Amino acid sequence: MDKQGNLYTVLYAVVMVIVVAAVLAFVSESLKPIQNKNVEVAKKIDLLRSVGIASDATTAEELYAKHIGENTKVINVSGSEVEGNAFDIDMAKEVRKEQKDRNYPLYICKLESGEEKIIIPLRGVGLWGPVWGYISLNADKNTVYGATFDHKGETPGLGAEISKEFFQTPFKGKTIFDESGVFTSIAVVKGVDTSTNPHAVDAISGGTITSNGVTDMLKECLSGYEKYLKN
Amino acid sequence: MSDKEPLFSAKNRKLITNPLNAQNPITIQVLGICSALAVTAKLEPAIVMSISVMFVLVFANILISLLRNTIPSRIRIIVQLVVVAALVILVDQILKAFAYEVSKQLSVFVGLIITNCIIMGRLEAFALGNKPWQSALDGVGNAAGYGVILIIVAFFRELLGSGTLTLPGLGTLNIIPQAFYDMGYANNGFMILPPMALVTVGIIIWVQRSRNKDLVED
């Protein structure tokens, strides 16, 4: 057959594409369960980190089952419980809905000491892509017990610093309601003495847009829980 | 015929050693710069990226070399792209399944191996006209030449930018002792940003050419 002819060229392309597609589809399908498991474990590690429990890929399952397990809830904006599995809720989809239509998952974590912490998932946008995190509250439903943030692709050394401990630790002890009980959230700010302000933490120099993204995310996501937390 | 040629004849050894120095894809041919900037802020992603590129380049070279007499010349670039893209997706899927943390760090850059000029360059320049074994060696050599530079750049960027070195399996090691920081030493945050990768590559090119005058163009 003429190797430079049209028929040969077209047949060659068709066969090649079918073979490649079959191989890739097979590999993707056979690796999917392991990949989904990885995503699940990463989420559990993040959830546990927000209450100060360190875990890794080998211990996360066990610690999650022990401290959180089935102790999760899904609520709506008016604070009443609705059907659903909190762990399976995709925050990326929820934040695109109107606030009144959203499902708000929350996790209740029992620490070794017997104290219960409420973990609230967060999702927002940074400079280059999504940022997300988990914030845990004390039983008073106001004081922050811990927070953890992560991001898809913020600038290393600048915005990406939100996933570091030095940024996350100052959230401890801040409050999301002011003294008269009005929802104020926590802002990530510059040039303010944050040590005395219960609603502010230090921003990252050079990471302004990411820092503002975290502020907006906290305000947007936490406000949906306002009714529930005030009860 | 060269059928009797030993597997590691002097000529074949050159296929591996040349790209490490006199024919280095990054410092001499200045290919694959984009990923050299992107993944070298830390050592671990640079190492994983080098291994991934080696996997893709060696197998793409072998496959294209095996197919070289059947490929219609009018669609040869498309055939090369499909082979490379398929291999890259394989790498991405495998990393997501077995090295999830690293795959999160590399994120889009694994996909961008497809656009790494070194790979298409070697397919066009070498694999289309040579036997599979030679092509495989050429792939190993060029990927190693790329990897060496990537790792050198990442070493200096992470050491000077963050004061740490991140190695696969060992985690992040603090290299700069705390006493230095106490005396007023500060990490150079600029090292973490892409421009400094370019400057570091530039310094490597300078050092290499001042040691080997043959490489200096008139």
Describe the structure in brief.
The complex is a heterodimer of chains A (231) and B (218). Chain A has helices at residues 6-49, 60-67, 91-94, 165-168, 208-223, 226-230; strands spanning 72-75, 104-110, 116-125, 130-137, 144-151, 187-189, 200-202.
Outline the fold blueprint:
The complex is a heterodimer of chains A (231) and B (218).
Chain A: H1 6-49, H2 60-67, E1 72-75, H3 91-94, E2 104-110, E3 116-125, E4 130-137, E5 144-151, H4 165-168, E6 187-189, E7 200-202, H5 208-223, H6 226-230
Parallel strand pairs in A: 6-7
Antiparallel strand pairs in A: 1-2, 2-3, 3-4, 4-5
Helix pairs in contact in A: 1-2
Chain B: H1 10-17, H2 33-38, H3 43-67, H4 76-98, H5 100-106, H6 108-111, H7 117-125, H8 132-162, E1 164-167, E2 171-174, H9 178-182, H10 194-211
Antiparallel strand pairs in B: 1-2
Helix pairs in contact in B: 1-8, 3-4, 3-7, 3-8, 4-5, 4-7, 8-10
Structure write-up:
The complex is a heterodimer of chains A (231) and B (218). Helices cover 35% and strands 19% of the residues of chain A. By secondary structure, chain A is α+β, with helices and mostly antiparallel strands. Chain A is elongated. Chain B is mainly alpha-helical and 218 residues long. In chain B, 62% of the residues lie in helices and 4% in strands. In chain B, a hairpin with a 3-residue loop joins strand 1 and strand 2. The longest helix of chain B is centred in the C-terminal third of the chain and has 31 residues, at 132-162. Chain A binds chain B through residues 3-4, 8-9, 12-13, 16-17, 20, 23-24, 27-28, 31, 34-35, 38-39, 41-42, 57, 152-153, 155-157, 206, and chain B through 41-42, 70-75, 78-79, 82-83, 86, 89-90, 93-94, 96-98, 100, 104, 107-108, 161-162, 189, 192-193.
